[in-house]
From TrEMBL:
Name the UniProt record assigns to this protein: phosphoethanolamine N-methyltransferase
GO terms classed as biological process: methylation
Key words, A-Z: Methyltransferase, Transferase
Reactions mediated catalytically: N-methylethanolamine phosphate + S-adenosyl-L-methionine = N,N-dimethylethanolamine phosphate + S-adenosyl-L-homocysteine + H(+); N,N-dimethylethanolamine phosphate + S-adenosyl-L-methionine = phosphocholine + S-adenosyl-L-homocysteine + H(+); phosphoethanolamine + S-adenosyl-L-methionine = N-methylethanolamine phosphate + S-adenosyl-L-homocysteine + H(+)
Listed CDD domains: AdoMet_MTases
Organism: Dichomitus squalens (strain LYAD-421)
Amino acid sequence: MATEAPPDLASTLSPEELKAIIARGYDTIAPQYLAWSGPRPTTTRAAYVAQLLDLLDPGASILELGCGAGVPTTQTIAAHPKKFHVTGVDISAAQVALAREHIGRGRVAFEHADMAKLHYEEGSFEAVLAFYSIFHLPREEQPAMIGKVVKWLKPGGYLLLNMNTKDEVVHREDWMGAPMFSFGIGVEGNRRAFEEYGKGLKILVDEVAVEKVGRFEETFHWFFAQKE
């Protein structure tokens, strides 16, 4: 059951505590989540990934933030004939372990980490992807995350991600067997975050899209941008 978290609950938990709950939640439900999400790839994500991979040169370096169990996106990128160099990051150790099982250690460099604490040299990647993961960062961390990614991109590199459309804190007390949080700053908040922290990015696509996920329809805010 999803409810907007009471203000007193959200205010009593630090960003680190919130993210620890999220990490433990995915550790707990990793196999169940894969069994549910694996057969339900969204056409929106698949279309954007295909478009991005067509634009990239062979051997390009790609960072995926929130790679989960590696299905389907990391798998698709790793198997591409352009032989991309892929780094997959996830806050859940169990998810990373599943991703290594599906893809293998030699094909993708996996890292168990909080994306907000990552440090890469400027200009490290030709593309950075974040699907259904930015909204697990507390609201105050989401704009700054965009700024970090801009620095990691090489000139001409691409950023592809989606965000929540509502300004809210959602607390699921029992999501597939574990508590879970997600956060949004709203469509206009997302755009302001890109305006303030995405300096140097040219926005190619700014789309609010409705997706069919199993029996349900969900709405996400997609951004596809290129570093100038």
